[in-house]
Amino acid sequence: MKQNLTILFIFVCSFCIAQNKLGAIGSWRGHFDNHSVVAITKGDYIYAATRYQIAAIDAKGIKGWLDKTTGLSAIDITNVIWDNYQNQLIVTYQNSNIDILKGDQVFNLNAIQLSNLYADKKINSVFVLQKLAFIATNFGIVTVDLSKHEIKNTWFPNNNQQPIAVYDITIAHDSIYAATENGIWGSPYVLNESQPTQWNRISTLDPLKITKFTQKNNVIYGYTTSSIYELPFSTPVFKISNATIQRIDSTANNLLLNIQYHSGKGAIVQFNKDNTTTPLIDSLHINAPMQAIMDNNNYWIADSNAGLLFKNSSTNAYQWINLGGTKASVRGAMSIDEENLIAPFKISQGYGIFNASGWKNYTQIGTTNLTLLNASAVNTIDNSYWFSTDNNLIHISNNSQLVSIQPNSLTGSYKEIHTDQYNAVWAIQDRQGMVRQLNSNWSSIAIPNNLSKTGIDKFIINNQQQAWMIAPINQGIYIYQSKDVFPTEMWRQLTTGQSNGNLPSMHVTSLATDKLGSIWVGTDNGIGIFNCGDIANSPCNAYLPIVNNNGFNGYLFQKETVECITVDGANRKWIGTQNGVWLLSEDGINILEHFSKSNSPLPADTVLQISIAPKSGEVFFNTNNGMVSYRGTATEAVSAQNNIQIFPNPIPPSFNGQVAIRGLVENAIVKITDLTGKLLYQTPALGGQAVWNTRTLDGRKVATGIYLVFVRDISGNEKGVGKIVIADGY
């Protein structure tokens, strides 16, 4: 299968980050943890691969990224190999998929992944010789024609046509050698033969347990984690007892040993012709080397713990290359303001912030080291950030001053944290209830003794100053009603009882409040919608939407686990599930989009969090296997229509995407006319943005020319706000 590859090439200063620009409506970009580099190769660029992305690097810095959002087929990259004969990049994945990248195209070879013939299809290594690639797998050897981008044959190096795990392959002296689970097998081989004639087991090497090969000047070396052998001899030419040989890389001049010491540090060691070794990069500079290459006598090292290391041989200077993205996977509760996405790592110290400049990671503020952060919140008045930890709350002001706060002396870790419409701070304290800061004073709000307290961690605050909380151990919902709006302060539990909540399930998983004040509740059995007032005096029961699914009526997301719910600027609902993400109409009845890992760049189908940038409409999907974002069609409306933006503008006549008109007030109507005033298109805004597909109301593509944009607000006032130019030859 062939598809176009979109690589963002941005000229940048040496080793600066060229963050992928925000694209057009409907475009995607990746936001991955790139601290671990698993493979590296040299071709037209230096290609450094993490689990999720491949960075293309030259002497001026990072030129772009390759990932699922730019055309790759999967995540969990295991290897990258440059094919010098065809000038193309070979990428293998944990799921046994293979991509070949040539020019601006991706050729996907998924036959191994889709095959049902073998239980274990893991790809262990790739050996390239002229127009063929030899893929060592856990069932045999697969050959690939690199010029035709197709799989040719499957070989079993044991003569009985039975599957056998092959760990590595090399070809020299007109023979092919395979390191297998049953020893080393060799066969005479002539390039372009359909298969080797007869495999012979080299039984004298069986005791050595060799699993990998390298070669230099037609000398084949087999190696284990502790020994190197010059084949066919069985006496080691090198042994190491205090470290593990991770890999041996062959360069133009020598062999490079990637060493992992038992103490946890690493090194790169040169293996010389006389079987001696010369240290090149010691454990002061590297942690866990996975692969090393040379380029113009400089060294590039893939480190699985720390990233990509560059050593300049002329100056003997070392530099860790920042590959962008987050420092660790994001597992804390994210928050977002008009400019920044704040992402606590939770499983690793610190947090990341993403904005127009890209990702920046923080592990300390000033001289204070940050701990594990559970959740974040934004104060929109002073643009400061709040974080919760297991021990306290942390406030970081916009001038980067950190204050540690202990709201009370009670025992219990702090979980989700939010600010309300008045910028008061609320946080859950496990085993206790909530804490609240109002007018710089902290108060504790205890959960009644008749309700379970251990395990509370998620909640929302609505505009009625009610805290809706997911009850622990599948006990539905707790509501705390303050006296800010209603006269009675109280707690209430909602269950599946028809007169006491009418939840679709007691296992509540997510909560959101929409622009009309409705509370959307996700469970492991679909969604319930609440419109409640004073819970002290009025019933509070869920409405369970009924939708048509393939001709059958059923409850919304019935039998699905709803992991998260987020409301966009047009009051539409983004629903994260274990089967991808869904965009629903405002009332939840119509499905507008459905993204999964099979039909989109989503890296996984389990979507844990969704955050939406209010100005751009970019939707961030944080999955259990990495984060990506999608440029949506809705933004938040503005209060005054003073700065309307139209993009892209001008546009080429071949453009088939969406033109966005952004910066609109709520419920605006947008009209597109020609220069004579003839109406061509009309649409309501989605929050603060309207989109036009450059077609008329009856679906005809408009011609090259100038088109006028008019906006009518809710009061009926209409005015011209701009022009759209479709330029011939643009």
Descriptive account of the structure:
Helix content is 1%, strand content 47%. The strands form 18 sheets. It has a 5-stranded antiparallel sheet, with no helix packed on it. A 4-stranded antiparallel sheet has the order 2-60-59-58, with no helix packed on it. Among the domains are: 100 residues, Beta Barrel (Thrombin, subunit H); 105 residues, Beta Barrel (Lipocalin); 85 residues; 92 residues; 82 residues, Immunoglobulin-like, CATH 2.60.40.4070. Strand 11 and strand 12 form a beta hairpin.
Category by helix and strand content: mainly beta
Number of helices: 1
Cα(first) to Cα(last) distance is 31 Å
* Biggest sheet, spatial arrangement of strands: 1-10-9-8-7
Helices, strands, pairings?
Blueprint: E1 2-4, E2 28-31, E3 37-42, E4 46-50, E5 54-58, E6 61-66, E7 77-83, E8 88-93, E9 98-102, E10 105-109, H1 111-114, E11 123-129, E12 132-137, E13 141-145, E14 150-155, E15 166-172, E16 175-180, E17 183-188, E18 200-201, E19 212-216, E20 219-223, E21 227-230, E22 236-239, E23 243-250, E24 255-261, E25 266-271, E26 277-281, E27 289-295, E28 298-303, E29 307-312, E30 317-321, E31 335-336, E32 341-344, E33 351-355, E34 358-362, E35 364-365, E36 368-369, E37 375-379, E38 384-388, E39 393-396, E40 402-405, E41 414-419, E42 425-429, E43 433-438, E44 441-446, E45 459-461, E46 466-470, E47 477-481, E48 490-494, E49 508-513, E50 519-523, E51 526-530, E52 546-549, E53 552-555, E54 562-567, E55 573-577, E56 580-584, E57 591-595, E58 607-612, E59 618-623, E60 626-631, E61 645-647, E62 659-662, E63 669-673, E64 679-684, E65 689-692, E66 705-712, E67 718-726
Antiparallel strand pairs: 1-10, 2-60, 3-4, 4-5, 5-6, 7-8, 8-9, 9-10, 11-12, 12-13, 13-14, 15-16, 16-17, 17-18, 19-20, 20-21, 21-22, 23-24, 24-25, 25-26, 27-28, 28-29, 29-30, 31-32, 32-33, 33-34, 35-36, 37-38, 38-39, 39-40, 41-42, 42-43, 43-44, 45-46, 46-47, 47-48, 49-50, 50-51, 52-53, 54-55, ...
